[in-house]
Design brief:
2-enoyl-CoA Hydratase, Chain A, domain 1; single chain; 440 residues; 16 helices; 14 strands; seven-stranded mixed β-sheet; alpha/beta
């Protein structure tokens, strides 16, 4: 006998009591589901707010950029995002400042190119490179009691001969000038004033109102994210409804909310499986970093028609490990998978080689490639040193053709240009030389 048949045979008062009890349980579940859905919609990922706080660099940069990419995949249409910025600038990870700052700038530019609007709000202090990063925003806001601090860039020490020193000093001054351009192009400050106020590491502290007057921000105030609208309920349980109507409506509301929560969770799951998949290689090229990346590539290789966006920001490292990674990348490509390598920040030394193993080579507008001759630490007896020198020559003969193969350069030209000094190449020059296919 069905439940409805059983209920039809019982006392009407008992039947109404049973319905009221079941309705109360369902209403409790509905309220719980409402709070869960409200928590999902009001959370940071749905509100699209991000706290970019502390030193710029390392995991902070990686987490920020990967979050931008996740949001981009989640959104079916352009959205506003709010970055709450409180940072004293870049934490030097790779021995050359601005790498991560420029990576963040190019990641934001790429995000904006998809139609999204970026609001940066200073909540505390935006100093040094952080003040330059915020200039890329569509709207720049500073809270009334916050500050900007500008100062001449400071770089780590280095040991060099006179010729190499001239190149290194020029390179570092170019980096500083590149960061300063973001300030000069988006404000009323002129280059002479900026130099006078900041040279020799003088600190130029700027109040919120002064920042507005100088054009470094668009407004002084507090940006509050708009609340996310909850879905409109399909029915409303009324006091005059019969017990059967209340029970039916409570059941409808429960299933309605379950469907919305499931849709949200399913969308998050879909983002993980949509093409292109994403790999982040931020840091030194070594056996650990390449090993983890190879595992990710092999996972994607087992997925039919998987496309990979491979984000690269590295100072270089082990040639042996880098070449092994390139071998795996080539094998994955041979299996019909596409690997897009996108340089954000820098592809230095071995990073420039890894870039060449891509199906499509992309470079951020503010990124750089570094080419130099292979080097190593020599140790041991005289005969051992000779063996090590021979091995390094063999390794260079093996690697340089991989760098030259898709470019307009010959191996001999690369050797000559990088024989004594580091050769830093900006995005436009890299495009002209055929080292990349696209600049973003």
């Amino acid at each position: 006998m069905q439940e409805n048949d059983v209920m039809a045979t019982v006392n009407p008062a008992l039947r109404d009591l049973s319905m009221a009890t079941r309705t109360a349980l369902l209403e409790g579940e509905v309220r719980t589901l409402q709070m869960k859905l409200q928590d999902i919609y009001s959370g940071r990922s749905y509100a699209r707010t991000y706290p970019l706080v502390g030193p710029i660099g390392g995991e902070a940069t990686l987490n920020f950029i990967s979050t931008l990419h996740t949001w981009q995949r989640l959104d079916d249409k352009p959205r506003d995002i709010v970055i709450n910025l409180n940072s004293y600038g870049e934490q030097d990870q790779f021995g050359a400042s601005f790498t991560d700052s420029f990576a963040i700038i190019d990641a934001i530019r790429r995000f904006q190119s998809k139609g999204h609007r970026v609001i940066v709000q200073v909540t505390g202090t935006a100093a040094l490179q952080a003040a330059a990063v915020m200039q890329i925003a569509d709207e720049r806001v500073i809270t009334p009691n916050s500050w900007l601090m500008l100062s001449e860039a400071s770089f780590p020490g280095f040991h060099s001969g006179s010729d190499a020193a001239r190149d290194e000093i020029k390179f570092r001054k170019d980096l500083a000038a590149q960061a300063d351009r973001f300030l000069l192009e988006h404000s009323s400050i002129d280059a002479d004033t900026l130099k006078a106020k900041t040279e020799y590491e003088k600190q130029w502290w700027i109040t919120a109102q002064e920042a507005k007057e100088l054009g470094l921000v668009d407004r002084v105030g507090v940006h509050s994210a708009q609340p996310f609208e909850m879905p409109e309920m399909p029915v409303v349980i009324g006091d005059d409804d019969s017990p059967a109507e209340k029970l039916a409506k409570a059941d409808i509301l429960r299933n309605f909310l379950r469907a919305h929560i499931q849709k949200s969770e399913l969308r998050a799951l879909e983002v993980e499986t949509l093409n292109p998949r994403e790999i982040y290689f931020f840091g030194e090229v070594n056996h650990v970093s390449t090993g983890m990346t190879i595992l990710s590539l092999q996972k994607f290789a087992r997925t039919p028609q998987a496309e990979v966006d491979f984000y690269l920001n590295t100072p270089g490292g082990s040639v042996h490990d880098g070449l092994a990674l390139m071998d795996v990348m080539q094998e994955v490509r041979a299996g019909g998978h596409k690997i897009n390598v996108i340089v954000l920040g820098q592809a230095a030394s071995m990073g420039g080689f890894i870039l060449q193993a891509a199906s499509h080579r992309v470079m951020g507008k503010n990124a750089r490639i570094l080419i130099h001759r292979i080097s190593r630490i020599f140790r041991g007896t005289g005969s051992q040193l000779e063996e090590q020198e021979e091995q390094m020559a063999k390794l260079e003969a093996q690697a340089l053709p991989l760098l030259a193969a898709r470019s307009k350069l010959t191996v001999e030209e690369i050797q000559k240009r990088s024989e004594k000094n580091d050769w830093w190449i900006g995005s436009e020059e890299a495009l002209e030389l055929g080292l990349v296919d696209e600049v973003i």
